[in-house]
Amino acid sequence: QDNKFQAIISHAKEYGFVFPSSEIYDGLSAVYDYGPYGSELKKNIRDYWWKSMTQLHDNIVGIDAAIFMHPTTWKASGHVDNFSDPMIDNKDSKKRYRVDHLIEAFADKLTEGGKEQEAEALLAEMERLLAKEDFTALKQLIEDNKISCSVSGTVNWTEIRQFNLMFDTKLGSVAGDAETIYLRPETAQGIFVNFLNVQKTARMKVPFGIAQTGKAFRNEIVARQFIFRMREFEQMEMQFFVRPGTEGEWYQYWKDARLKWHLSLGIDPAKYRFHDHVKLAHYAKEACDIEFNFPIGFKEVEGIHSRSDFDLTQHQQYSRKKMQYFDTDLNEEGKPYGNYVPYVIETSIGLDRMFLLILSNAYNEETLTKEDGSTDSRVVLNLPAKLAPVKLAVLPLTKKDGLPEIAKELVDSCKPFFRCFYEEKDAIGKRYRRQDAIGTPFCVTIDHQTKEDQTVTIRYRDSMTQERIHIDKIKDLVLKETF
Ligand code: ATP
């Protein structure tokens, strides 16, 4: 499993998907840059989410709020006081660990040793103690389970303490006059503070949602997990505002709807599961994660939270501005009141984590048997065609006899519609392999017969089958399969 994860990380770098940030200076811990194919794939995932949320739901609109927000926002939201993880330091190695990650690592070791029931019991006990914030008992649990810690002998632990995850910086350049502000640790608050602006200007009626994608920052205590856990990352969040009392149904609705979205990408349902939270975040009434079976095990990719009226009420209190909705429908139904603070269901997914999900799911090392019985191998990304960075590669068989001209004409006619790639160098087999490695679903080869009858060879990435079709049919075929 770990080998596969390492192979994916190398592949991502070699083929221009993900690079360590500032690599020439040996990188920056838990920060990454997206390369030419990675940025396309990431954009396609973001667009796919955005379209499903806004374009396909009449009652959801988008916004694009700033990363910087008034500092009181984070006081009201509870992040200044509560957005922290319990951590513990190993005094000898000077390494810092998140308590839950450390205990999860112990549980993984137990599982590896075939002691699955003990692992389950350990995790259950951890969740129980975290919910109670019983740090003395948690420290004891760590000490009792140190068998699996990489440091041998006695481990000298510090006490467990809370570590706030927000980054701060200074607004204003005059020394002494600066105000401490935070880099947002989630995009959600930009939605809450704009609740009435959006509701009024877009003339929305409850129930309705506001969607947003954008960067968030958390000073994570990181285990090396590539883009799974980053200090700067992107979220895709949607807050759905509902009548008080209906939140239970809507929570269920969004749980189902979000799982359907994941499965619409053709991913095996067995790789997904729900995990209900025992320890609820400071704002949550009910919460679950959608977990995916990554090469590093089942991990959270998305959270669905029933946040009650917590956020809007808090902002109302701190800003002294009304955050209420006047529900005319209620009055018409003869109900006693029309003004209320709506309840909120949130769906929150990490774009980078979804990227890792898509990449891990697509990455395959295949052994191929050739016609003469000998074997060959290929690395292929079986990406969903609609997310692939390049949709069509056009490859003239030779660099002469007018074949490049025909190929370029095809590229020119297709490129306003989808991303194409043209290449004339190297043997055709080698060119196919390079496209397999970046997940291009269709390759078209132009050969001498094309000049005679305007047919080309189209090769399908997953099956590697080929067929001859008329050159005029290519654009529509690719459009149909990648839309
Ligand atoms: P975790 O328990 O893994 O720290 P969380 O429960 O704190 O995550 P949320 O606050 O619910 O995460 O954030 C919603 C989503 O944002 C997560 O499901 C995840 O996909 C993404 N996310 C959160 N933190 C990070 C991070 N450090 N790097 C990348 N993605 C992240």
From TrEMBL:
Residues 102-396 form the Aminoacyl-transfer RNA synthetases class-II family profile domain. Its EC number is 6.1.1.14. GO terms for biological process: diadenosine tetraphosphate biosynthetic process; glycyl-tRNA aminoacylation. Its main location: cytoplasm. One of its GO terms (molecular function) is bis(5'-nucleosyl)-tetraphosphatase (asymmetrical) activity. Pfam families: HGTP_anticodon (PF03129), tRNA-synt_2b (PF00587). Keywords: Aminoacyl-tRNA synthetase, ATP-binding, Cytoplasm, Ligase, Nucleotide-binding, Protein biosynthesis. Gene3D superfamilies: 3.30.40.230, Anticodon-binding domain (3.40.50.800), Bira Bifunctional Protein, Domain 2 (3.30.930.10). It is found in: Cytoplasm. ATP binds at residues 218-220, 228-233, 300-301, 350-353. Catalyzes the attachment of glycine to tRNA(Gly). HAMAP family: Gly_tRNA_synth_B. This is Glycine--tRNA ligase. It comes from Filimonas effusa. The lineage of its organism: Bacteria, Pseudomonadati, Bacteroidota, Chitinophagia, Chitinophagales.
